[in-house]
Write a structure and sequence with these properties.
- The protein is α/β, with parallel strands linked by helices.
- The protein has two domains: 36-205, Peroxisomal Thiolase, Chain A, domain 1; 211-361, Peroxisomal Thiolase, Chain A, domain 1, CATH 3.40.47.
- 31% of the residues lie in helices and 22% in strands.
- It has a five-stranded mixed β-sheet with strand order 1-7-6-4-5, sandwiched between helices. Strands 8-13-12-11 form a four-stranded mixed β-sheet, with helices on both faces. A two-stranded antiparallel ribbon has the order 2-3.
Length: 362
């Protein structure tokens, strides 16, 4: 009986469980409601110390005439670390004032983006400390490295995150304390740069006509050796005598960088105009990175841009790297320009090598 019982079960076919999942509905993201993006507020922060060309002539072989003729720079700002002036302090001041200008509360900010090559350290991100300083605790925060294009890269990213509904209110900061990475025995580089920060608050709006019409971000890493900040001996390009300069200071092949900028500057303006289907004269304001006054003038003449549409402040601040474009933006708004409805083109280029643009209906 026992043998017959076992024999019966051994001859039965046991169904094998299916390895396939039961049919189910695919996970589909909710439909995206496209939002407009408005520029709510801006600000700037610069250290009080002014360094003139005459000041520099006392510590190096140069003169006010030599610097002004080649660059258009007359003076620049410089942080004093002994007084606690730093990237963190400038960014915190700029963001505080931008929040006030925008009429929002710090806890309404969802994300803080900082474009800088002179952040206090790689960890934590400077943006995290700045967000905490202003009371935007819980907001996302990160640093972005794109040299002089840092603010504009950040502006493009922030815009698209708001446009698709991922975030409602975003702060974008551009700041560099270039005096931290300058060797003042290197005349060709140290006369060019200054310290500054600028910030902007962006917010979603139901008005979809507001925001970026088109924007571009480009890079050509093959040209990195023309503008870089080596931190250790392994960062120095092959064939370059590292004993000729100090680690941690900016190294620039001025001739090659100038050639790059002269080519890319007008090129990206034309590309952006073409993509937007507008003419140069239809733009209300051109907010261009301040690297060289002669270059700005050449672009202005090439496109027939009136002087009142291409504001220049390089004479007072020098090249502020990531702080250049947002400081310009804030100063224009302070003069009652860049009003709602205006067409504004932002253009920047810098180390990387990088170049970028953004055409906004502000």
């Amino acid at each position: 009986m026992k043998t017959a019982f076992l024999s019966f079960f051994m001859t039965q076919t046991v169904p094998t469980p299916s390895l396939q999942r039961a049919p189910s509905s695919p996970v589909v993201p909710p439909p995206v409601k496209v939002m407009g993006v408005e520029l709510l507020g801006t600000s700037q922060a610069v250290p009080p110390t002014i360094v003139t060309n005459d000041d520099l002539s006392k510590i190096m072989d140069t003169s006010d005439e030599w610097i002004a003729q080649r660059t258009g720079i007359r003076q620049r700002r410089k942080c004093d670390p002994e007084k606690g002036e730093s990237v963190v302090s400038l960014c915190t001041e700029a963001l505080h004032k931008a929040i006030e200008d925008a009429g929002v509360k710090a806890n309404e900010i969802d994300l803080v983006i900082l474009g800088s090559v002179t952040g206090e350290m790689t960890c934590p991100a400077t943006a995290c400390r700045v967000a905490a300083n202003v009371g935007a605790v819980g907001a996302g925060a990160f640093d972005l490295i794109a040299a002089c294009c840092g603010f504009l890269y950040g502006l493009n990213i922030a815009h698209d995150l708001i446009r698709i509904g991922s975030y409602k209110t975003v702060a974008v900061i551009g700041c560099d304390v270039m005096s931290r990475v300058l060797d003042y025995s290197n005349r060709s580089v140290s006369v060019l740069f200054g310290d500054a920060a600028g910030a902007a608050i962006l917010r979603a709006t139901e008005d979809t006509t507001r925001g970026m019409v088109c924007g571009r971000m480009h890079a050509d890493g093959s040209g990195w050796k023309d503008l870089y900040i080596p931190q250790q001996k392994y960062d120095i390009p092959e064939g370059v005598d590292g004993s000729a300069f100090k680690l941690g200071t900016i190294q620039m092949n001025g001739r090659e960088v100038y050639k790059f900028a002269v080519k890319r500057f007008p090129e990206i303006i034309q590309q952006t105009l073409d993509r937007a289907g507008v003419k140069a004269h239809e733009i209300d304001h051109y907010i261009c990175h301040q690297s060289n006054a002669r270059m700005l003038e050449a672009a202005r003449e090439r496109f027939g841009i009136p002087t009142d549409k291409m504001y220049v402040n390089i004479d007072r601040y020098g090249n502020c790297s990531g702080g250049s474009v947002p400081v310009l933006l804030n100063e224009l708004r302070g003069m009652g320009k860049c009003k709602p409805g205006d067409l504004v083109m932002f253009v920047a280029f810098g180390g990387g090598l990088t170049w970028s643009s953004a055409l906004w209906r502000v």
